[in-house]
Amino acid sequence: MNQTTKRKQKVLGPTRIPKKYTIDYKYIALLKCFINKYGKIRPRRITKLPLKQQRQIAKAIKKARALGLIPCSINYLAQ
Fold it and tell me: Is residue 56 predicted with pLDDT exceeding 90?
């Protein structure tokens, strides 16, 4: 029997961000929860966020990268 099994990927962030927290590019600690060690944005199937929040997170991460708040280099994120 040569069966392949799928590995379940670890869910890092909360399944839903509470409404009292606004998703903003200035909250670097929150945004780093949704970035993997290579600097890529984690997909929705891993973060388990609703579509609206996933879009807001992606926009905030891209804006923070453009402003230089989150480094795009692998070396800084791996530490």
Answer: yes
Determine contact, residues 60/25, Cβ cutoff 8 Å. yes
C-beta of residue 72 within 8 angstroms of C-beta of residue 39: yes
Q: What is the pLDDT of residue 38?
A: 85
| Residue 48, both tokens | 């388990």
Phi, psi for residue 35 in degrees, rounded to 5: -120, 135
Mapping DSSP to helix (H, G, I), strand (E, B) and coil, where does residue 79 land? coil
**And the tokens for 8?**
């379940």
Q: Which residue has the higher pLDDT, 32 or 9?
A: 32
16 neighbors 50 (Cβ within 8 angstroms): yes
CB-CB contact of 28 with 64 (8 Å): yes
Backbone angles phi and psi of 41, in degrees to 5: -75, 130
- pLDDT at residue 25, as a whole number: 94
- Amino acid present at 53: Q
